[in-house]
Structure formats: C-alpha cells, structure tokens
Amino acid sequence: MIFVLTFAFVIFLCFGSFLNVLSHRITFDKKLFFKRSHCPHCSGIISWYNNIPLFSWVFLKGKCKKCNKPISILYPFIELFSGVVHTYLFFNEFTFDLHPRFVGSLNIAVGSFLSYFVFFSALICATRSDFERMVIPQIFTLWLVPIGIFSAYLGLIKILFYDSLFGAIFGYAFLWVVGKVFKFFTKKDGIGEGDMELLALIGSFLGVFGMYFSLMIGSVIGLILGGVYLFIKNKNRNSKIPFGPFLVLGAIFYFFFIQI
C-alpha cells in the first residue's frame, strides 16, 4: 500500500507540473503546445533534469539556472498541491469508500475518481490563475459545470442530479446578489465574475450544501489569512486579494472531511 501511494504521489506531482503549464498558458493567452517548458524571464528552454517536479525548484533555490532570476513559488506549490489532493482522492476512491452505492463496482469507482479528478484539477488551475493574475478563465469553471451535472445524473458523484443543478445555479446567483448589494452601498466591485463562476462549478460537484459550506469556510479562511497578509505587507483594506483560492480550500475541506 505504501508503495502504491508513493507511486501515485509521484505521478500526481508530475501531473501538477502539467497543470502549472496549462494554467499559466491559458491565463496569459499563450499557445498550449507552442514551446517546451521555459523560463518566463529569459525564455530559455528548461532541461529535463532541471524540470523535475518540486525537487528541481528546491535544488535550484527557486532561480533559473540560465539567467538566475527567481522562478515563482507557485510552481512547486501547485505541484505539491496536486500531489497531495489527487493522491488523497485516489486513496479514498479505491480504498476507503464507505458509501454503499459505490462499493463493489470498479466501473463506478473509476467513473467517480475521473469525475472528481477533473473537478480538483480545475480547482488547482483556478487557484494558480487567480494568484498569478487575479482572473479565473471560464475553461476552469463554467465549461466544466455540465460535467458535474452529468456526473450526478449518472450517479458517479455523491450528490443527486437536482442537487448538482441547483448547486450550480445558486452558487452563481448567491455571489451575484452579494456583489450587486456590495456595489450598491460602496460603489465598488467587491466580487469578481470568476468567483461567481468558480462557486457555480463547486456547486455542480458538491451540491447546494457543499457550495454554501465552501463559501462560508472560504470566507473565514480568507478573512484570517487576508488580514494577516495585509498586515505583513502593510497594505490598506482597499488592496485586492484573490478570493478564488479560499473557495477552493473550502471545497476541498468540505469534500474530504465532511461529505465523505
């Protein structure tokens, strides 16, 4: 079992490296298959031995070997994030799934794993894009909502069809209303369109309660960590902070520690 989990973790670390490239290139409107992995500063091609997930960044002390400029900590963070989340998902779906309707059917287990794999991969990509540019491309959110609803219809995820459908609708509508109310009183945009679409995605996979819980726990985490960030960086309360990553943390916490 230890060997299987270790192997899975390494595989998902490598997949995290792919998610880094996918998120970065889509966020900055770059061609996906235009060029091999390269330094964002000098555009130098990164050799395979300097592109080993997580370890290369640590070994090179977070700097490009050619131009010696810093490489964002988002790269090892997303790789590690992917390794931990996807390995835990794999471990849960194929080892300790206690829900009766999932037990005894390998096809259902595989379908369930693939559905949630798409979901969490999208959340990880959204986390990177929001941190890096404070935008969340729709390909990581709205485009995948039908997959959540269809998976619920087929019984591949742990919510019913209507719960998935209403979770997506209410997820978007709730933040839309909050955003309109906030703007009415403050004359400022407080919630981005990407956050609304991200919560719609979360609702389509976790249902109405999962969407609501993700929003609540994400807001609490965001309030605490955001306050600490503003204090450390000596910024005022009007400074913009990405909210998407906190929604993602709320969704992951709900899925692994409450829904399951």
User: In percent, how much strand structure appears in the residues?
Assistant: under 5%
The separation of the N and C termini measures 21 Å
Helix content bin: 55-70%
* Average pLDDT taken over every residue: 87
Number of domain units: 2
Q: How do the SSEs run, as a string of H and E?
A: HHHHHHHH
How many helix segments?
A: 8
Give unreliable regions as ranges: 96-104
Radius of gyration: 19 Å
The overall strand count is 0
Structural class category: mainly alpha
Shape descriptor reads: globular
The major β-sheet equals: none
Give structural attributes:
single chain, 260 residues, mainly alpha, 2 domains, globular, 8 helices
SSE diagram, text form:
Blueprint: H1 2-27, H2 55-59, H3 74-94, H4 106-133, H5 145-154, H6 161-186, H7 193-232, H8 244-259
Helix pairs in contact: 1-3, 1-4, 3-4, 4-7, 4-8, 5-6, 5-7, 6-7, 7-8
